[in-house]
């Protein structure tokens, strides 16, 4: 045990103090080399001295693997021979259709449920004096890992056959009204929605924060004027607040779509893809480590990337318009 | 005098708003309170249930729901001893710290260096590089797994904690640079110019002027990087295989869910220990977390 503690401490000292000092020294070395070359050339080279480490790291961890995976997605299971688009054809056929379908359910239900609940929470919290407390409670789950969140929710979804005492919160609650218990994680369709709701619980805080800050930026004069004119709260929300916070709504939707695309932990921990809940990220893990099919796994990964790309374009577009303004 | 007038007119306008407010039915106001309170109570319930279950005796957890403590409060700390003793939770927490602390510090440092170069220095390709960074923000981790596993195996980083740092820092870097870039661009140009006049080198300007000024935003990035690193399951699950260290807490928990021999109690205790660190962090540093979310999201 003391050995282990020593290793942990040594690693922390190495990574949190040692490497930063090395990075500092490397920058210093780069700068002193720059003083040796003519000033004009130095000015030209300086950005690359500074960018060397960040760019090299991003290239190694992100750009290089993307390029390699694009290649292996067109090779067979062992990356031995070229098979063209066979892996992509496989990814959209047979048992994969159900999995892709589940991801589509995630892609639609998760962002919309999060958005609607976040709009609801941000609007109502804005009207009460204990808003900071309410906000803190909604933010708390965002600190929790998807893994721990899944364990937490086993207590909500736990299911015992009808007639026996229910120890799951939801089924016990239904029992109060004499409703038969629901096998939340086993019954098809219901189980997908149950898993999605765990993600909503975990991520709502982020969406609520973004929308709440946007709502507070809508001019209160405009809202008060509309109220004086006799507009209902409902009307104020849909005709004034919502149109004014559309950019933030877009941000929330794109963020949540990306999260839905990559969802892995919840499915892996709760059902491991059984009972018709499999998603592509979990299937990729299976293809990689159980089926050892590199071609299939790579094709799935590339599909994930290309589904995410349009969202990146939306992001880039916003980034550019921000840079211009 | 002026202040009093302002105050008075403020009071008048507040009264006006209130009279408008009271036109709306009082019932509606109470309804808003009711809905908000029920909502936050429901949202907090799963965490409450976790905390309660982690302190209930094994036999009780197996036979009744967590709410039973309301009528029959029986608590024990046994689950925590079991979790620390048999489930190797202490070791896992140690490994998680050994991953998350360096990963956080390196992410903040390298993001600062990258963002500083992007904001302060003019060079051909700067716009292209900025756009590439934004595109990299969305790269799914899954696409990187196979090539990096091979690379790690080839260079001996597989199964090591520095390998995990490298991955997490590289993966979070685009977000970090993106978040810091916005802040650094808002530092007035004159500050740099006066530093230049004083003869400060670029390195000195960076470490003794820009870094101290950027402390709040670095804290924002730091807390987010820490949460991501601490909560990551996929990367340690794949890259830590075959190492002599205890698995990090997320990997340990995911394994415990699958095997139910130890019962629910110790699992709940282990889970509570795993969320205690991030929960404390987010409660005590909420200001910085909120800033990080808003700075990273609204601009992207």
Question: Main traits of this protein?
Answer:
heterodimer, A: 325 residues, mainly alpha, MetI-like fold, 14 helices, 76% helix, 0% strand, globular, B: 300 residues, 2 domains, 15 helices, 78% helix, disordered N terminus
Please provide the ordered H/E string of secondary-structure elements of chain B. HHHHHHHHHHHHHHH
Instruction: Note the beta-strand portion of chain A.
Output: under 5%
Structural class of chain A comes to: mainly alpha
- What is the structural class of chain B? mainly alpha
Task: Give a structural overview.
The complex is a heterodimer of chains A (325) and B (300). With 325 residues, chain A is mainly alpha-helical. Chain A folds into two domains: 71 residues; 232 residues, Orthogonal Bundle (MetI-like fold), CATH 1.10.3720.10. Helix content of chain A is 76%, strand content 0%. Chain A has 14 helices and no strands. Chain A starts with a helix and ends with a helix. The relative contact order of chain A is 0.10. Chain B has 300 residues and is an all-alpha fold. Helix content of chain B is 78%, strand content 0%. Chain B has 15 helices and no strands. Chain B is globular. The relative contact order of chain B is 0.13. The interface between A and B is large, with 119 and 115 residues.
List strands and helices in order, with pairings.
The complex is a heterodimer of chains A (325) and B (300).
Chain A (H helix, E strand, L loop, with lengths): L1 H35 L2 H34 L13 H6 L3 H31 L5 H9 L6 H12 L11 H8 L13 H28 L2 H9 L4 H12 L1 H17 L2 H6 L9 H10 L4 H31 L1
Chain B lengths: L1 H22 L2 H29 L3 H6 L14 H9 L2 H32 L5 H11 L8 H11 L5 H25 L3 H9 L4 H12 L1 H17 L2 H6 L9 H10 L5 H21 L1 H13 L2
In short:
The complex is a heterodimer of chains A (325) and B (300). Chain A has 325 residues and is an all-alpha fold.
């Amino acid at each position: 045990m003391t050995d282990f503690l020593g290793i942990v401490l040594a690693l922390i000292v190495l990574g949190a103090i040692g490497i930063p000092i090395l990075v500092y020294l490397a920058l210093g070395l780069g700068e002193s080399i720059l003083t040796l070359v003519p000033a004009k050339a130095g000015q030209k080279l300086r950005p690359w001295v500074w960018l060397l480490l960040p760019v090299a790291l991003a290239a190694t961890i992100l750009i290089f693997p993307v390029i390699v995976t694009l290649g292996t997605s067109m090779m067979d299971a062992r990356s031995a021979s070229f098979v063209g688009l066979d892996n992509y054809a496989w990814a959209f056929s047979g048992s994969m259709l159900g999995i892709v379908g589940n991801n589509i359910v995630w892609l639609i239900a998760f962002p919309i449920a999060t958005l609607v609940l976040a709009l609801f929470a941000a609007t109502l919290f804005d009207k009460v004096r204990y808003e900071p407390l309410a906000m803190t409670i909604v933010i708390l789950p965002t600190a929790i890992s998807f893994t721990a969140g899944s364990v937490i929710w086993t207590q909500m979804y736990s299911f015992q056959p009808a007639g026996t005492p229910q120890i799951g919160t939801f089924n016990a609650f239904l029992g109060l009204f004499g409703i038969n218990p629901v096998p939340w994680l086993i019954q098809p369709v219901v189980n997908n929605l149950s898993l999605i709701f765990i993600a909503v619980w975990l991520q709502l805080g982020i969406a609520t924060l973004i929308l709440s800050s946007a709502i507070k930026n809508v001019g209160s004069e405009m809202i008060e004027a509309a109220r004086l004119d006799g507009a209902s709260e409902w009307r104020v929300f849909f005709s004034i607040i919502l149109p004014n916070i559309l950019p933030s709504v877009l941000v929330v939707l794109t963020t949540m779509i990306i999260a839905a695309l990559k969802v892995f932990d919840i499915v892996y921990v709760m059902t491991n893809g059984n009972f018709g809940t499999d998603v592509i990220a979990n299937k990729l893990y299976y293809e990689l480590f159980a089926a050892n099919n590199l071609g299939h796994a790579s094709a799935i990964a590339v599909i994930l990337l290309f589904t995410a790309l349009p969202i990146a374009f939306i992001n880039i577009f916003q980034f550019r318009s921000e840079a211009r303004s | 005098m002026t202040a009093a007038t302002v105050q008075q007119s403020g009071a008048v306008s507040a009264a006006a708003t209130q009279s408008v407010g009271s036109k709306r039915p009082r019932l509606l106001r109470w309804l808003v309170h009711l809905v908000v309170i029920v909502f936050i109570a429901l949202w907090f319930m799963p965490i409450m249930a976790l905390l309660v279950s982690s302190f209930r005796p094994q036999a009780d957890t197996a036979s009744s729901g967590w709410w039973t403590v309301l009528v029959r409060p029986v608590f024990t700390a046994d689950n925590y001893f079991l979790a620390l003793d048999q489930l190797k939770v202490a070791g896992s927490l140690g490994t998680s710290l050994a991953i998350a602390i360096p990963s956080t510090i390196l992410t903040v440092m390298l993001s600062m260096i990258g963002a500083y170069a992007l904001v302060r220095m003019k060079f051909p390709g700067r716009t292209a590089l900025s756009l590439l960074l934004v595109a990299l923000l969305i790269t799914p981790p899954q696409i990187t797994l196979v090539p990096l596993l091979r690379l790690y195996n080839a260079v001996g980083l597989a199964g090591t904690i520095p390998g995990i740092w490298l991955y997490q820092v590289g993966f979070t870097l685009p977000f970090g640079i993106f978040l810091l870039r916005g802040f650094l661009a808002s530092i007035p140009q004159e500050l740099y110019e006066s530093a230049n006049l004083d003869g400060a080198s670029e390195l000195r300007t960076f470490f003794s002027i820009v870094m101290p000024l950027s402390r709040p935003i670095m804290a924002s990035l730091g807390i987010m990087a820490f949460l991501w690193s601490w909560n990551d399951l996929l990367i340690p699950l794949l890259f830590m295989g075959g190492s002599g260290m205890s698995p990090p807490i997320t990997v340990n928990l995911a394994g415990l869910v699958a095997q139910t021999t130890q019962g629910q109690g110790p699992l709940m205790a282990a889970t509570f220990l795993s969320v205690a660190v991030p929960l404390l962090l987010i409660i005590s540093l909420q200001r910085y977390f909120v800033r990080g979310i808003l700075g990273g999201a609204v601009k992207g």
